[in-house]
Design brief:
InterPro entries: Macro_dom (IPR002589), Macro_dom-like (IPR043472). This protein is of the alpha/beta class. The chain has one domain: Leucine Aminopeptidase, subunit E, domain 1 (3-Layer(aba) Sandwich). The chain has five helices and six strands. Strand 3 and strand 4 form a beta hairpin. The longest helix is centred in the middle third of the chain and has 18 residues. Bound molecules: ligand AR6. The site of ligand AR6 has 25 residues, from strand 2 and helix 1.
Length: 178
């Protein structure tokens, strides 16, 4: 059987899955990093959908997620989640990061998505330590997959070699403990 979670190195805007996840900010109005790359590659339809969400609910809180079209991207949807800014662990950042993965997966399920790709949320501009983030992302995804058979495949798309190394090591470790 194919593994339901896979770690790859690359650019998430190129990945053809039902939904890709964006590491956004609470304004949902775009930014740098993977957020900038997704809006650039997906075109203005994504921002137009984000504006509608902002008009309705006023943005997105840390640890929460919203869903939009993927515009010109090969994916069908973009799920925008807001990771925590790292404050040395003093503001429940670990719980908030886990929540990003769980809330995104719940939205994927409620929209009938079977395949989903995540970037390493919060490990860029928001400075979450990459080793801790790898542990949290993989344990959150594995726990969710255990209870939710409708998701067939989760890809963790690492942009940089350091995240890729931490994530592959962490996946091996957590699979051995299962
Ligand atoms: N594909 C996959 N991963 C990527 C890509 C890409 N094309 N580009 C960057 N990454 P970041 P954050 C990786 O900074 O830390 C934005 O301005 C990157 O190497 O994008 O959650 C938002 O608007 C890193 O490992 O997001 C927010 O203001 C990971 O994606 C803020 O940044 C996340 O880095 C969010 O900060």
């Amino acid at each position: 059987m194919q593994a339901r979670i896979e770690i790859l190195q690359g650019d998430i805007t190129k990945v053809k899955v039902d939904a890709i996840v964006n590491a956004a900010n609470s304004s949902l109005m775009g930014g740098g990093g993977v957020d900038g790359a997704i809006h650039r590659a997906g075109g203005p339809a994504i921002l137009a959908d984000c504006r509608k969400i902002v008009a309705k609910q006023g943005g997105c809180k840390t640890g929460q997620a919203v869903i939009t079209t993927a515009g010109d991207l090969p994916a069908s949807y973009v799920i925008h989640t807001v990771g925590p800014v790292w404050h040395k662990g003093s503001q429940e950042e670990e719980i908030k990061l886990a929540s990003c993965y769980i809330e995104s997966l719940k939205l994927a399920v409620s929209h009938g998505c079977k395949t989903i790709a995540f970037p390493n949320i919060s490990t860029g501009i928001y400075h979450f330590p990459k080793d801790k983030a790898a542990q949290i992302s993989i344990s959150s995804i594995l726990n969710f997959l255990d209870k939710q058979p409708s998701i067939e495949r989760v890809l963790l798309i690492c942009f940089d070699a350091e995240n890729y190394a931490y994530c592959t090591k962490e996946l091996k470790k957590q699979e051995q403990n299962n």
